[in-house]
Q: What sequence folds into this?
């Protein structure tokens, strides 16, 4: 008996919409990462992209616990000497609330080509409107 391996033609991808208003960032991000990866499906394979598409709305209304708004920092480097840039979570929520969720989910996905492909199936919007009505997404509560 051979080990079953999923095929690209056999996959069944769904579209889900997640409303993250007043939900905790880490708990929602881990649930989204599981759905993107496809670990909730019985035919999960770690080397295969079998996950679903996730649409996140109300990203500007997400909650964090503790004193993370002031203590959590995001870092980037320009490549030049002394080019380290720091942005707090409070500043990030004011300017780019969608990037907060994307960065949280990215850290929970594999750090390779598969992880980058999985992240393309995540669509994050700050408000309640999204342009994916034609895909008929179903509501998902995490």
A:
């Amino acid at each position: 008996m051979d080990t079953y391996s999923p095929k690209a033609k056999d996959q069944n991808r769904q579209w889900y919409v997640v409303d993250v208003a007043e939900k905790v960032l880490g708990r929602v991000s881990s649930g989204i990462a599981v759905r993107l990866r496809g670990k909730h499906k019985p035919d999960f394979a770690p080397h295969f992209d079998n996950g679903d598409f996730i649409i996140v709305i109300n990203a500007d209304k997400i909650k964090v616990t503790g004193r993370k708004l002031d203590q959590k920092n995001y870092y980037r480097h320009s490549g030049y000497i002394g080019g380290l840039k720091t942005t707090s979570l409070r500043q990030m929520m004011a300017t780019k609330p969608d990037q907060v969720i994307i960065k949280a989910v990215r850290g929970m996905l594999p750090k390779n080509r598969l992880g980058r492909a999985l992240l393309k199936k995540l669509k994050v919007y700050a408000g309640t409107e999204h342009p994916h009505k034609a895909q008929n997404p179903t509501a998902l509560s995490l």
Summary: DSSP finds five helices and six strands in the chain. The longest strand covers residues 15-19.
